[in-house]
Amino acid sequence: MRRMKKMNKGKSKKKMNSYLKMILLMAAGGVVGGIVGFVTAFSGEDYIAVIGHGMDAFLFAVRDHALMLECICGAICLVICETNYGKMKRMGKQMQDAGDDEYHELQYRIEVSSSWGMIASTVGTVLMMLIISPGYSMKYIESQSTGETWMFLAEIVVFLGLVGYFSLWQVRYVKLVQRLYPEKKGDPTSMKFQEQWLASCDEAEKEEIYEASYKTYLLTGKVLPVCTLVAMLLHMVWNTGVLAIIIPAFLWILSSSNYCHCCVTKKSEKLAK
Question: What gap in Å lies between CA 117 and CA 173, rounded to an integer?
């Protein structure tokens, strides 16, 4: 009984420490936020104005050189994608005559190349959106001369071409993997592609996917609250708009809710069995 009481006291102490720690962290955050707000309100207006002008100048520069930036960034990502795709094809051919040790080594190298290609295609797509967004405004487009309008149309064409290429590259990548591993199933253009692909994986591959997915969830659980807080601060200082706060906040809620929903669904499936 005494041992049980000691254990309960230890548990309650740990709980109290956790609660106290959380309260202290919240209080510290409030104090820091108050100090930053006070300093900003009374002595930081000049610095805020300077930073704001710098950001505006940067966005104007991106908008004025969008076509060149699209071509440069797109070309870099394209080269990375094609280089790694070529490596995957060559290593896939080598796998046909490889021994066990060499086969596993080639598998790993193919995974590395495919990861670089996927990252490059994703980064390329996002960069195209970021580069074109400063000029993607009806107010800005209507204020342009005929020559500037044609330049903007050229930017749109390059944007669509590169985004289309990166999307097709990912389809090519999936098809290549399916040629290397015929057991892999799934139509990359289908909305249920991830489910189809997962169903065709063996248990070891599924475990890797589950672990990677959980680590991604943990990362988003840390990043999205920070993004929401930063968006709130930026809105307070530069009036960036409520939408910039709503989007990361919505994604934060969606990520947490979907994780909880999946956990409950899995539990119910086990009970049904």
Answer: 9
**Residues 6 or more apart from 113 whose CB is under 8 A from it?**
84, 85, 87, 88, 91
**Nearest by Cα to 132 from 106, 150, 158:** 158
pLDDT digits (tens, 9 = 90+) for 1-26: 444 444 454 555 555 577 888 788 78
* Alpha-helical regions (H) of 133-183: 138-142, 146-180
Which two three-digit tokens encode residue 248? Answer: 């990361």
DSSP string, 238-265: H---SHHHHHHHHHHHHHHHHHHHHHHH
Q: Distance between CA 162 and CA 73 in Å, rounded?
A: 10
- Say if pTM beats, i.e. exceeds, 0.85: no
How far is Cα 193 from Cα 8, in angstroms, rounded to an integer?
Answer: 49
